[in-house]
Amino acid sequence: MQQEYFERYLVEIRKKKASTARHYQESMRKISQVLHQLGYLEFEETLYDIDSYYDLKRIEDILKSNQEFIDLDERGNRMYTAGLHRYMEFVEGQKFDAVPNPLSLIDCPIPIHYNKKVYAKEVPSRDRVIVRQVLLSEKFLCESNTSHSTFTSRKYRTPYMEGHHLIPMNLQAHFNVSLDVYANIISLCPTCHRLLHNGIRQEQKPVLKRLFDERQDRLVESGIRLGKNEFLEIVAESVKVI
User: Fold this and answer.
1) How would you classify the pairing of strands 185-188 and 162-165?
2) Fewest CB within a 10 Å sphere: which of 2, 34, 154, 219?
């Protein structure tokens, strides 16, 4: 998934030529091969499959201090370091603030990825790459109500917000494209997040309607097509609200 978004980020937000974007993609492919040789990736995995921000930073530090990678990079005129740097800038949301609604520029249908490694372990929601990027893009504000304030996160030194899948992931079987995409992830304060999971129907419904209205066009861009009434019905069934 990050591979598709990374290429669009380079072209749409960083304003790189398509040929340059392909150059960076090739660097990422080679880096993945190195990580396989070093034993840091499992069979058929790539650097894009590392879903935890912490794990990505750890891999970045390992590569920077690995003499085999350093030698390879020197022979390649530092093309691999350049590709790695651009990818980490993407992961960290650099230049997101240079354009309005940056993630809407790179919305696109994403194939369903079945990454057993990600779902076999618990990854804190704020640590997931895609969730961190959404929170960055939304400037750590609650999309249900931007006046809602929270405490400051000890780890990131930002207002604490959580990522929420507007269309729940347990409905993935009903769609032929991934639901784990930017357009379907909402930045919410803990109270609003709990409301959408545990609140009564009467209090949930107006919030869901408003969030869906704000995201419907972007959902369509991501290949997720459904009407408001259908959305409300499937979400109600999914979370078994009262």
Assistant:
1) antiparallel
2) 154
